[in-house]
């Protein structure tokens, strides 16, 4: 078969990869010269630790696929680094203890470590914390270089063609007309619009059960030493269903977050890039219209948290940015798939899970469509 995929982000590219690996031909259109949305404005984390029990199977499958992809496409920068969620209060420690003894703890690779064992695993952590929840299955890829590397891999198959700077204007059956008047015809069209819920996506399927979420992040100059794992703080427990427990309910009832963290719905996640700098975030904003500028208070707060855990000053911040991703409104929905007609599907809304789940979601769509 021939597929036309609209959207050059991680979700569109994952669908292209799944189709090509099954022997099909793919034409992929991306309106920007290079994807510039949530796909590149993230941590590059393949985050098993916080996924709900109902999502664990597909998450572990995606983790397996990323490792396989990393073995064939080294440019994606896959590394099985694991993660440490560091707790600083007794209430957070209770949540970590509940997670480490939950029914899915072994599948996730959870182990609760005391400070000495944390520092043995991660010598760069010389600061203040009570314990660390280690997740051995978490991993990372290089979000800014993964898609170009995947496209080079796909192009080498001879069954893939990428049209950069090409906006799809109309879809009729299996034919896509772009902004230069060219017609791209396939047996199936898959539209992966990311956070662009209006325009072509709305014309095809109307209003979808998705919303947009805005975040702020930053990146430092090289740290000068290695972080062997990704790190998170106890506030991250609040944003991942995998940590649901009575202990989490008590933590949230205490309203123990700082004013800045609560106001900006913050968690601290930190991953070291291959160049040595740290990507640090993030915030959550759900009500539109979103501001066009970024707020400095979250950056100051995050800097303080990371410095407390590392026990040292951070190198200079060299980049700050905001990003917007698409999230399905139904908390039970991993992604939103809407059928426009027999030959056209719209797929969006994985939330902050696009990089984590992309390969498995592409594979799942291929199964659903009998590719």
TrEMBL record:
* Gene3D superfamilies named in the record: D-Amino Acid Oxidase, subunit A, domain 2 (3.30.9.10), FAD/NAD(P)-binding domain (3.50.50.60)
Domain annotation FAD dependent oxidoreductase: ranges: 3-368
The reply on keyword Transport is no
- Cited Pfam families: DAO
Instruction: Keyword check for Kinase, yes or no.
Output: no
GO terms of molecular function:
oxidoreductase activity
Domain of life here?
Bacteria
The cofactor named in the record is: FAD
This protein's GO CC annotations: cytoplasm
The UniProt keywords, alphabetically, are:
Flavoprotein, Oxidoreductase
NCBIfam families, sorted: HpnW_proposed
The family annotation for this protein states: Belongs to the DadA oxidoreductase family.
- Name this polypeptide is given: D-amino acid dehydrogenase small subunit
